[in-house]
Amino acid sequence: MGFKRYSAFAVAREAMNYHLGWERAWGSPAPKKKYDVIIIGAGGHGLASAYYLGKNYGITNVAIIEKGWLGGGNTGRNTTIIRSNYLQDPSAAIYEKARSLYETMSQDLNYNVMFSPRGLLMLGQTEHEVRGYKRTVYANNLQGVATEWISPQRVKELVPIINIEGPRYPILGALYQARGGTARHDAVAWGYARACSQMGMDVIQQCEVTGVRTEGGKVVGIDTTKGAIDCDKLGMVVAGHSSVLAEMAGFRLPIESLALQALVSEPIKPCMDVVVMANTVHGYMSQSDKGEMVIGGGTDGFNNYTQRGSFHHIEETVRALVETFPMISRLKNLRQWGGIVDMTGDRSPLISKTPVDGIFVNCGWGTGGFKAIPGSGWAMAELMARGSSPLAEEFSMYRFREGKFIDESVAAGVAH
Amino acid sequence: MLILECPCCGVKADETELQAGGEAHLKRYGPGSTDEEFDGYMFSRKNPKGVHFERWRHAYGCGKWFLAARCTATLEVFGTYPAQTKEPPADLQAKIKQKRPNWEGYK
Amino acid sequence: MSTRLQKGGRLIDRSRSMSFTFNGKKMQGYAGDTLASALLGADQMLVGRSFKYHRPRGIMSSGAEEPNALVGLGEGGRFEPNQRTTTTELFDGAVTSSQNHWPSLEFDVGAVNDKFYRFLPAGFYYKTFMFPRFAWKHVFEPVIRQSAGLGKVPHARDEDRYEYAYAFADLVIVGGGIAGLAAALAAGKQGKRVWLIEQTAHWGGRAVVDGVQIEGQDADAWVKETLEALEGMENVTLRSRTMASGLYDHGYLLMYERIADHTPGDGRPRHRLWRMRAGHIVTATGAIERPLSFAGNDIPGVMLASAVRDYVVNWAVSPGDRTVIVTNNDDAYRTALALLDAGLSVPAVVDARPEAKGDLPEAVRARGVKVLEGKGIAKVKGGKRVTGVSVCLQAGEGAELETIPCDAVAMSGGWSPVVHLWSHCGGKLNWDEKQAMFRPDPNRPATGADGEAMVTAIGSANGHLSSADVLADAHKAVGGKGAAPGAVCATEAPIMPVWIMPQGAGPALRFKMWLDPQNDVKVSDVQLAAREGYESVEHAKRYTTLGMATDQGKISNINGLAILSDSLNQAIPATGTTTFRPPYTPISMGAIAGEARGEIFQPLRKTPMHEWHETHGAHWEPVGHWRRPYCFLRTGEGVHDAVNREIRQVRNSVGLLDASTLGKILVKGPDAGKFLDMLYTNMMSTLPVGKCRYGLMCNENGFLSDDGVVVRLTEDTWLCHTTTGGADRIHGWMEDWLQCEWWDWKVYTANVTEQYAQVAIAGPNARKLLEKLGGMELTKAALPFMEWREGTLGGFRARVHRISFSGELSFEVAVPASEGRAFWDALIAAGEEFGVMPYGTEAMHIMRAEKGFIMIGDETDGTVIPQDLNLQWAISKKKEDYLGKRAQERSFMASAERWKLVGLETLDGGVIPDGAYAVAEGHNANGQRNVQGRVTSTYYSPTLDKGIAMGLVKHGPDRMGEVIDFPVDDGKVVKARIVDPVFYDKEGEKQNV
């Protein structure tokens, strides 16, 4: 494949020929016998892991194996929020790394992922929440993450449609990250897939892993619906299905799979430029470039692999947001959907070696994975290529044994 | 939107009356246990895509905890039984085996 | 032009004229009209603009699938954007406006996009707008955002109300066409609890429009008769204007009833959202007609053939004077007949099939209409309205054979069963090659709690298109006794799938064939997606936005995936469908939120003294579902001054705190002591009757989760006080262990939080105040510190605890909740001579901080263990086990490097800002500044007239006197000295008098 560079000029040139000249964005190869590295899972995290293996470490004999279609899991089902205003140092480090990589991702990948640093607010609605967010601001400023605490009046200026004087939970201020925002989720997966393909990696879709082969405690390959494939190193980057794969490799993870739901309204003209999260009442909302209000809330409570959630969670979320933004009462819910998120014991991710030599996991992103994609891939690539990574250090799966948790619920409540 | 029958009060309880409590039949490890044992008890989870034994509380009903066998891939409920049980009742296990021949069984 | 016919119209009442406006222009319609039929009747075909190219858009359908005819409806607090005119009943005085254009519908500047359509193919934005980097946020995105979006933004607060409802049924039949009616009749006769719901205001569906004969009579008459029979059955519930929005697991069916959309302001709730639990669901949801893909098929005046027939028959509206019909099936000929019956002209029927010789084509021919076999439409002529069609060979490349002048085109590409509800919970589909449709696979239905099928599809929703088959299927599906109702209808020749017209159309034509007219997705776009590797149906959808418009692909999906399959050279079932997700058609957020808004957004818990607080200046703070007074404001007083006043009053005389929200849990039984020893870090079994002890609770992960005073009431009864937020959680926690782990222990718990009102009477005059009430001996000898007694105070039954969270002489008195307010009033009256006043949570917080007492949620945050807070004295060394003990033995928990509690005193007497961190030298491996501690509580102390704080600092207790730096705002640094956390009355003399 030649891989034409994308640009306005290229689009104009192809327009003359009714766009019949465009080539495939990524290949559709059959698997080879062996790869240096296999990444299972062609979602954002898996593709980013592969991309940075190639880009940062020159490792390009890589296959990315995908059960369904690339980007078809949580990468294509989230509410696309990007922020790094986390409290704990390890989280702030990896999310800020990710956020900074998002800033230049469109140029790096030559694919417009529409990163839009439109600003993000987390509302303080109880004294306790206010203290937590003020603490986060101080922590962020020492972590190199630019955030500030703003007044209710400033909130109202940034979000004219908000109700700051609700009778039950008046808004007391907000944690504001001006460089937080959103991106086009599918484009992130597509851009990475195209870039991986350009580096000579094989993105293999419609290929389900059926077994993990080990010899003497070390990984040697995988079995798939497209045959056996050998590898030296194996990265498992499959979010909700991590436990299923770990079981194949003979170990257990501190992971539970839960449904998380989201919904959008019908599109309306622009009325809210920033992303607003209201954690006391459990809901968050932004407006897409298409004009839909994109809404999310909390997870369901029980183990679930169906990608369907329970309606009362939608109710709770919409109630919270109608109270926060009364005007949405007269909008209509266009579509709701669910994804399966992988929750760890402390709700922070795993980027870790495993009991099997050569197998690495990157999972447990829970409800907040999209924003982490480039940072997660960066750290995973470093861990797989060099055996250790400062960004991944604290996210080891063995931290639970030591009692060394990374607990973000401290300040931020539930939502991502 | 699950419905689970509370084995204590007999009510077919709507999910909104219930509180989920995660994997059932975990053995508690206290002082004197190894790090691995304690870590396993606290954090390692089977999290199967399929038959799952789990804890529920009829929180907005009779208040009692109970256990359920449920398929996490289809949400089919095989049965519920009292929390005061060390392992799933034999007849329930047999019923599951009949409905899910490939199930590896309770272990 | 489109006009109102002189006679006819099944649904309109010509005696009831209704006026409405469209873009300010006054128009007339009739009762029974939809907005769409009324607009057409007033010759308003152009009603909006498309999303991307701002092309003119007209009414395309007559139902839920309408992609184009969306308007802003209403004004002020009743304005709603994106209202679908085809499903909106007309009401007198309706104010409507078209959407997505500037400055006007007729002249839209945004339509310039249409001139550049070749430069704006699917996904062009992924390939462009990348340089320079800042330009996306500052230039491109704002422009795109402004031109995108559809409806206007509502601004005023919603004036309507919404309600929730719950219901249960054995069988819910969704869809009030003849299938649903026949099924309901058969099931009703079996005595089942049956609900039959219909999304429109009318029963009978298509059959009544198409003139089907059922049981020897007109469908209309049969429908009427059947409805009467159903209304006579007590076990059957009928609801029109009720749409099944979504099916969720275990038979949870969400139903959206539009009660007052057509009678706004009449006082009824606007919408009612039903949460139905159904034993079984029958989908009789019918089918939706597909458009055909020919160039210019988006021009206003091109409509679905069935819709044209609906407008003529139901509302006596003719979409055009001369209507060309284009089809690949026999059904569309019914439209020709309906138009002819209404005296309108049908210049031709263009049929893509090589031969059209069925009953219906012959009937049309017999009426003198020419039928052009094997032909297609090369393109539609016109701009804002159809002016003619150019006819070509279907098998060719589009060379024009003739032009037929016309002002409307009725198209039919076949029918797609409505399979949304069937699919929501995982029901699977089969591709029916013969009928060219996806239909439910009866072997792979959605399953319920018992693992059995919970949905059955019947009638057209199950792929049966003739009325006779529909009725037979419906009757059989519900186990109807005897023969199914019989129907007589024309036999139809098979459909010929046509996904592109003409078959050999070149790129220029394919660039003008719309699949999704709202989002402007064309045949060429889907082909481009396939060419670029977006091969999965989900990729193609997301890349092109096909099916992502407000109709969610009802119009476009099947045609789009047929094009995709063709491009990929694979069969349609290999491509599959995108996932069907609720809601079926959009439902209002207002209905989802229901009545829960404003004051009743969430339940409000009130203490017995709540009303008193409300009338005495309470400045509220939400704490869980309670509201507690943060302080009590006096006229003209600020919050800060009020707090300081309250503290000074307590320190100098006496104040009252409403402590009723504190959790109170009774733990009783022979094993209660043993149980509490497991629950608390300290020993509770040894607490003597009559005494109180402060206790700590950890979770099994070792972290401090709650604290409070435990009271031993009797030999086998303890009363555990918890934090306000912890009451329900801790009670649940106790029950969890008792029911699931130590179920053989004989312990009983009861959460009695709301059974008692509790008041803290704190301050040097506290005893004097209570002694004025009289009834109990309260001297130090009679009731020493950390003990309790029961008796009466001023006639109130009271349990009096000598405990103190303020550091002052303090009594916490519990009285029955029903007497709480009277007791409070008595305290206020008796305390007058001491200047007694209530104090709020902030004064309480500051006073406890002055004393160095920890607060759950301030000093703890879920990551803090008791050892961090120097609370080793409250951890029993004698116990082998307690919840959290094993966890605290893990390496990081036992580490000497953990941050520990200390007091902090600024060098300048100021207050350290909330949440500030103390920095250490250097940076970590990720470039973050190293830190060595943080503030957990920080206040101005009016007692000491300076800032005081507590914090967690690395090796803190070993570093007394050391000064550490807290960088705060604007580059400033607050310097603070590490001190003992007890700032006030270190010896505890004041509380122990």
Total strands of chain A: the figure is 18
Q: Which structural class best describes the helix and strand composition of chain C?
A: alpha+beta
Q: Approximately what portion of the residues of chain A adopt beta-strand conformation?
A: 25-35%
How helical, in percent, are the residues of chain C? 10-25%
Q: What characterizes the major β-sheet of chain A? A: 8 strands, mixed
Question: CATH homologous superfamily of the largest domain in chain A - what is it?
Answer: FAD/NAD(P)-binding domain
CATH topology of the largest domain in chain A: FAD/NAD(P)-binding domain
What would the average pLDDT of chain C be, to the nearest integer? 96
The helix fraction of chain A, in percent, is: 25-40%
CATH superfamily of the largest domain in chain C: FAD/NAD(P)-binding domain
**Poorly predicted runs of chain C:** none
Radius of gyration of chain C: 38 Å
CATH class of the largest domain in chain A: Alpha Beta
Radius of gyration of chain A, in angstroms, nearest whole number: 21 Å
User: What is the terminal separation of chain C in angstroms?
Assistant: 96 Å
Distance between the termini of chain A: 39 Å
> Which descriptor suits the 3D outline of chain C?
elongated
Tell me the number of strands of chain C. Answer: 53
CATH architecture level-2 label of the largest domain in chain A: 3-Layer(bba) Sandwich
Transmembrane segments (chain C): 164-187
Domain Aminomethyltransferase C-terminal (chain C): 900-985
Organism (chain C): Albidovulum litorale
Domain SoxA A3 (chain C): 512-594
Outline the structure in words.
- With 416 residues, chain A is α/β, with parallel strands linked by helices.
- Chain A is 30% helix and 26% strand.
- Chain A folds into two domains: 26-111 and 184-254 and 346-412, FAD/NAD(P)-binding domain; 120-180 and 257-344, 2-Layer Sandwich (D-Amino Acid Oxidase, Chain A, domain 2).
- Chain B has 107 residues and is of the alpha+beta class.
- In chain C, strand 23 (375-382) and strand 24 form a beta hairpin.
- Chain C is of the alpha+beta class and 993 residues long.
- Chain C is elongated.
- The chains are: A alpha/beta (416), B alpha+beta (107), C alpha+beta (993).
- Strand 16 (332-344) of chain A pairs antiparallel with strand 34 of chain C, so a sheet runs across the interface.
- Chain B: InterPro entries: SoxD, SoxD_sf.
